[in-house]
Amino acid sequence: MNHLNTAPGRRRFLAVAAGLGATAAAGTSGVAAAAPGPRRLRVATFNIHHGASPADVLDLERVARVIQDLRVDVVGLQEVDRFWKRSGFVDQPAWLGERLGMRHAFGANLDLDPEEPGRPRRQYGTAVLSREPIRSWTNTHLPLVPGHEQRGLLRATLEVRGGCVDFAVTHLQHDDNMERERQAARIVELLGSSPERTVLVGDLNATPETPEIGILTGALDDVWPRAGSGDGFTYDALDPHARIDFHLASRDLRPLTAQVVTADPEASDHLPVVSDLEMPVRRHRR
């Protein structure tokens, strides 16, 4: 059996070696090297409500199944717990990453004393789960009105087909539009006014016509009007009446599809949104 398997492998090796030699010879002519076709990136956003249903029944496995069925390359999560009593003291981003076979990064916007002696500090914030390598990540706290919940921008640099994509996730203040405007302006400062290969997802707690969304769409395109159909309502999950969960993409990315996923509306109080984006081809000369 080993002999039969080795021969095709050797033939493939010789064929690859011959192809590399031909490529090297052609490279001396100065002609642009062949580039792969456009790369699709499938992304999602999902406010997981710390793994609890609208009736506040904890079931993180149910959330994992929803994410698994999305078949995404990367997803941004909001309302993610680490070591809270209400969620069984589970490190939710690590648990989901292991369960789904994905890399993870977590941005702690709340960092509080443990609820029981000997437990780790409890944290709450946003997370990135990625099938692509995460080269680096940072979490930056956003402008805060005293007494309100601290919000942040979690940015992960993903390695995708030899290049990089900046994937960011946020969750803006729910009850103060002026605070959201300041938070949106800070996000634009952090991502840049004309970013490239950048995706921002999240629960923005605002509808498309609001000034805070306008600040963000001054720098990034709202994917839904370009690739979705219908109203795109995401909240609340059992009676959707508002589009407050967004995918925003830099203008060098082409939206192909966008969909609100309604398969399991009781997994969380928000519905997830998934989209396919086409990244530009980068050609290099030798």
TrEMBL record:
Residues 44-270 form the Endonuclease/exonuclease/phosphatase domain. GO terms for molecular function: hydrolase activity. Residues 1-34 form the signal peptide. Keywords: Hydrolase, Signal. InterPro entries: Endo/exonu/phosph_ase_sf, Endo/exonuclease/phosphatase, GPI-anchor_lipid_remodeler, TAT_signal. PROSITE patterns: TAT (PS51318). GO terms for cellular component: membrane. One of its GO terms (biological process) is GPI anchor biosynthetic process. Gene3D superfamilies: Endonuclease/exonuclease/phosphatase. PANTHER family: CALCOFLUOR WHITE HYPERSENSITIVE PROTEIN PRECURSOR, ENDONUCLEASE_EXONUCLEASE_PHOSPHATASE DOMAIN-CONTAINING PROTEIN. This is Metal-dependent hydrolase. It comes from Streptomyces violaceusniger.
